[in-house]
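#random but structural
TW: two for the price of one
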Amino acid sequence: MTELARPRQGLRDVSSHLHDFVITSWDVDPDALAAFLPDDLTPDVFALDDGRERAFVSAVSFVNHDFFVAFAPFVKLRCVQTNYRAYVRRGDERVVWFFTTTLGTPFVYLPRYAWGLPWARARGTHEARWDGDALDHLRWDLRSAAGRETLRLRGTGAPIGRLDGFADAAQTHEVLTSPTVGYIRRLSGTIGTYSVWHAPLEMERAEVEEARYEHYERLGLVEPGAPPHSVLVQRLTHYLVFLPPRPARLGLAN
């Protein structure tokens, strides 16, 4: 994959090394997803091998290491995090819609009250074992106001390859692993946008023993206990998040 030049980190931007990085995705009904989106965003729809037209949502879970804001690099956090996102379009541009984020630290209340982001405090445990960059197993058990998060994974060492609904591995990366612009509805009802940078991801498939993120079940997008479309893992990657969120000029009809 082509590596994008790393942007300069501003004083309010966040840097973090993401360990035990997992993208758990489900295919969902496009009309059901569209009901949660502002007017100018539409689900990115793909045809599965069985002919059904489906959209996609993911729970992106990881452990932040050396998480810091640039103006205070001496204050570094370690905490679990899950981003709940849908893959959508704004015109011809592929972007993501964030439903919520859970964060395993009391500092979650800073973005919640400073910027009105619908983030929630998460509590629980996680454990992962790797053989080099290959996953052996991973367990993730957290609870928050967004619901319970449960993962039981085994490594396969298999590259992403072609996933159902996508033309090839390159399209999978384009849609599921590489979005850099996101939109979110603040607690006030207004829409904000922010962007990220990350090094190219080299993810592998994981074997699923259990995968449930109750938030999507509560929204009615995923049936309780439904198996995910795919689970992709990577031991470590580096992210920059460009903050604060900016106002976005999107429709607010929903």
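TW: number two ↓
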Amino acid sequence: MTNQGVAPQAFVLAAACLILLALPFVTTYNDLLTALAMQAGVAGPMQSIAPAEARMVVGLLQLLGIHAAAAGSQIIVWGPSGPANLFISWNCIGWQSLVLLAVSLTVGLRGESSRESSLQVIVVGLAGTVLVNLLRVAAVCLVAAAAGRDAAVFFHDYAGTLITIAWLFAFWAAAQRWLLSETVG
């Protein structure tokens, strides 16, 4: 494996370590920071994405046969215990995973890959990351419906990060195997 092949995984591993070390701090202050950012108006443009994401998540849940509905940034999902109401804030839409993807693309696409291969990696990375974010939010909804709000919050705060990290490792393994195997000669 070339240095280019190791670089994205090394970056994702380093980022994963930092994220996991900071996770208790991040989750403790996340709600406060989210509320402050929303009051300051910083979150407005990103919050405008949440209603579309909510509708897409409801579509995924309905494909799975789960009774769910969206109203703006709210998702209601019905489970054995009754309805669970969830709010998608700007901080839950997955922008952090897109930033991590962008940085890993910067690291992973250094080298001798063709423009076509690099473009394919970028498109697959973006599409996959968006899909993983939708699946992550849908999983939070399923946990809320099955086990309640507290379990869903715990899943969101901890498993959501691990899902993103697992996705990036799988993405780079696949990208290196099938998209970046050819180099410009």
